[in-house]
Design goal:
By secondary structure, the chain is of the alpha/beta class. The chain has five helices and five strands. It is globular. 29% of the residues are buried.
């Protein structure tokens, strides 16, 4: 051992953390009220708009030697194409380096790491994650600016 600290493993959710998922579902339901699952539509996941500030912070994490970032997202059971479309979104917005860091997992409690940034605290195994759970959209982490401050100014 060289005495150097191990990088912090940080997992970031996609839906409503990196992308505007709920906003897109709401918009699609207004367009087609009869469609029960707009997320099952071809191209839904690959066309989602990114959350403000998320891409910049993800790139900053990737460049930081003390952070090992990953994307950990649950699949949509209503759309088997979401696996491919989420991967396409990651490549388009974050590049191939993040494609190799994309984990599509229905139970986030299986992940081993230091931080999970997710908009939910339960439902997809978040409640069983052994590290720190940062709830995106909460009072403490309302947006990417708050996440960036905590990660780079307070944590490291």
């Amino acid at each position: 051992m060289n005495g150097k600290a191990m990088p912090k493993i940080v997992y970031v959710d996609m839906d409503d953390v990196l992308v505007n998922y709920t906003e897109a579902v709401t918009f699609k339901k207004l367009q087609k009220p009869e469609q029960a699952y707009p997320q099952a539509e071809l191209g839904f996941f690959s066309c989602l708009a990114p959350k403000i500030g998320g891409i910049a912070v993800m790139k900053k994490m990737l460049e930081h030697p003390e952070i090992e970032p990953y994307i950990a997202t649950a699949p949509s059971l209503q759309n088997p194409l979401c696996y491919m479309e989420k991967r396409i979104w990651v490549e388009q917005h974050l590049g191939m380096e993040y494609v190799s860091r994309l984990i599509i997992i229905p139970n986030k409690g299986l992940l081993k790491g230091d931080i999970l940034i997710d908009d939910h605290v339960e439902g997809k195994g978040q409640e069983f994650f052994k590290g720190d759970l940062w709830q995106f959209g909460s009072i403490r982490f309302p947006d990417w600016s708050a996440v960036e401050i905590e990660l780079f100014n307070n944590l490291l």
